[in-house]
Amino acid sequence: MFERDALPRVLPFACYMAFIAIADLLQRLLGEGVDLRWLYPLKITVVAALLLYYRRRYSELALAWPAGRQLLLALGAGVLVLVLWVNLDADWMLIGHGSGYDPRDAQGQVQWVLVALRIVGAAIVVPVMEELFWRSFLMRWIDEPQFLDAPPAHARLRGFVVAVILFGFEHNLWLAGMVAGLVYGWLYVHSGNLRSPILAHGVTNGLLGLWIVFTGNWSYW
Fold it and tell me: Is residue 94 packed enough to be buried (19+ CB in 10 Å), middle (13-18) or exposed (0-12)?
C-alpha cells in the first residue's frame, strides 16, 4: 500500500512517462513525418506544475542546499556522470537506436527556443522529478512502505540495487543510466540530503545539453 506522501512523488514521474508513451503512439499513428518535438515543452510544463502543486509535501526539499565539501562532492559527481555517460555508448550498452531530440528545422538550422526549453527542462525540472521518485520514494519504499520514516543513511541494499537497475533501464543508454543511478543513490545515502543528488543530476543534464549542442550528437537527448 502507498502512504499519502507517495502520490506527490509518483504522479509527476508517471505523467512524464505517459508523455513518452503518447509520443510513441502518435508517431506510430501519424508516421515519421509528424513533428512531436513541441510535446517536450508541454510535458515539462505539466510535470513542473505538479511539482509546484505538491511542493509543500516534499519535506526533504526543506533542507538546505549542500555547502562546502558536500557541494563540491555533488558538483564533482555530476561532472563524473557526464564524462561516463558520453563514453558508455557501445552498441551492447544501448536499448534500441532512438534518434534523440533533434532541434534543427528542415534546412538544418537549430531552433534555439527548442534547445533552451530542452536544457531548462532537463537540468531543472527532470532532476527534481526523478530524484523525488527514484531516491526519495522508490529506493526506500521497496524496503519500508512508510518510506519517509526510513533515513537515507540506513537505506538497505535491496532497495538501492533495484532503484539503480530500474533507473538504468529507464534510459536508452542503460549502463550509463545504472552508473548514474549508482552515483546519485550513493550521494543521497552519504549526505542524507535529497538536494545533493538533485544538484548532481542537474549538473549532469545541464552540461550534457551543452555538450550535445556543441557536438551535434542529438541522439544523446
Answer: middle
